[in-house]
Write a structure and sequence with these properties.
CATH class of the largest domain: Mainly Beta
CATH topology of the largest domain: Thrombin, subunit H
Number of helices: 9
Largest sheet: 7 strands, antiparallel
Number of domains: 3
Strand content: 35-45%
């Protein structure tokens, strides 16, 4: 038996593809004995215009191998040339979730390190997209295009899914163009696959292949239930085991990117493991599923709410969790400051706790996602909406040439207060011309101009 390997369906490929002539079959009749034959076509006619093809190109750094001294005459000095850049191209899919704003969601691995992102709509239009933000830990990215007459997809509540529900995958496998496959929801809450840091996958047997990454998994109403992300199979081929990020998880992360310009992931503050038969027997538990708390971090959200080591978390917001990994995936998509209801078992009794998630370690975002003149700067929000801090400014970058420096704090633009990255993004998107940034540098306040 061949060993199965986990393969991310990012679709970086090259070469030629040989096509053979397929046999021709007669179409099934639309009606048999006066009864209309069932078809997914009406639903797909509504849903497929919201699914796009994505092509990217860029460069990434490739490390050189160490070269023995005797051969440095031929290969040069590796110390002077420790690495080189290599061009890459890739293909994937995306889903339009907001037609008015031009928001498109995809996988982070589809557009990671891309210098150019090109979107192809079902009607053939090609549009350049810009990256609004991404979360590598959950493999979600948000793009934006400027176009009229876009079609958005309706987002469904993925928490209402059941194993056995029908599912349809829409994407562009192998660069062949938009393709539709169907199947069922095979499992829910899949985790522990080591594909991503935060996992809470929908498993489906609807065929997902290279190039489907970032595409839509929909129900029979044409509503988005997941973002196709990965496959399990030998050599990257489909064997009926595909994984999608649930729509609720995607929605939570995208809303944070839109609001803050980054994912502000909330944390519970516990260390734990999956409940299994051995733990259930040792702790005299009546359940063999859930998240077993081994340690509660001092002064964490969990500690403040009253959780204790030895508690078993069985539900979050009324939805059952089968493992600690699944719990981590669900918590990891919920933003800081949000309240969650946890159901736990303690001393054989079921109890409920309301926990307000606290701030995880702040992630920086690249400022060129906001404006080209800010390229080279890294931004993060300051607590309590006190402005936007520049954590890094690359030497001789456009941001450096404008006059920005590390540890500067942006508090306003054109006499409009800026409380966070979302404010800065919104203002730069909605205004043109000359921009005057109000900067705090140490104890000084100053204005820097750019257009």
């Amino acid at each position: 038996m061949k060993k199965l390997s986990l393969v991310i369906s990012a679709a970086l490929f090259s070469g030629t593809l040989a096509l053979s002539t397929a046999p021709v079959y007669a179409e099934l009749p639309a009606y048999v004995n006066g009864q209309q034959m069932p078809s997914l076509a009406p639903m797909l006619e509504q849903a497929t215009p919201a699914v796009v093809s994505i092509s990217v190109k860029g460069t990434h750094e490739v490390k050189r191998r160490d070269v023995p001294d005797a051969f440095r005459f031929f290969f040069g000095n590796p110390r002077q040339n420790p690495s080189r850049e290599r061009e890459f191209r890739g293909l994937g899919s995306g889903v339009i979730i907001n037609a008015d704003k031009g928001y498109i969601v995809t996988n982070n691995h589809v557009i990671d390190q891309a210098d150019e992102i090109l979107i192809t709509l079902k009607d053939g239009r090609q549009l350049e997209a810009k990256k609004m933000g991404a979360d590598e830990a959950s493999d979600i990215a948000l793009l934006q295009v400027d176009a009229d007459d876009l079609t958005e997809i309706k987002v469904s509540d993925s928490d209402s899914l059941r194993v056995g529900d029908f599912a349809v995958a829409i994407g562009s496998p192998f660069g062949l163009g938009q393709t539709v496959t169907s199947g069922i929801v095979s499992a829910l809450g899949r985790s522990g696959l080591n594909i991503e840091n935060f996992e809470d996958f929908i498993q489906t047997d609807a065929a997902i292949n290279s190039g489907n990454s970032g595409g839509a998994l929909v129900n029979l109403r044409g509503e988005l239930i997941g973002i196709n992300t990965a496959i399990l199979g030998p050599n990257g081929g489909n064997v009926g085991i595909g994984f999608a990020i649930p729509s609720n998880m995607m929605n939570n992360l995208v809303n944070q990117i839109i609001e803050f310009g980054e994912v502000r992931r909330g944390v519970l503050g516990v260390v734990g493991t999956n409940v299994n038969g051995e733990i259930a027997k040792a702790m005299n538990l009546e359940t063999s599923q859930g998240g077993f708390i081994q340690q509660v971090v001092d002064d964490s959200a969990a500690a403040k709410a009253g959780l204790q080591a030895g508690d078993v978390i069985t539900e979050i917001n009324g939805k059952k969790v089968k493992s600690f990994a699944e719990l981590r995936g669900k918590i990891g998509s919920i933003g800081v400051g949000k309240e969650v209801e946890l159901t736990i078992i303690r001393d054989g009794k079921e109890k409920s706790f309301d926990v307000v998630l606290e701030q995880a370690e702040t992630a920086n975002i690249a400022a060129e996602n906001l404006h080209p003149m800010l390229e080279g700067a890294q931004l993060e929000n300051i607590d309590n909406n006190q402005g936007v801090k520049l954590t890094e400014v690359a030497q001789n970058s456009p941001a450096f040439q404008v006059g920005l420096r590390k540890d500067d704090v942006i508090t306003g633009i054109n006499r409009t207060a800026i409380e966070n990255i979302a404010d800065l993004r919104s203002y730069l998107q909605d205004h043109k011309g000359v921009f005057a940034l109000n900067i705090k540098r140490g104890k000084r306040s100053m204005y820097l101009m750019f257009r």
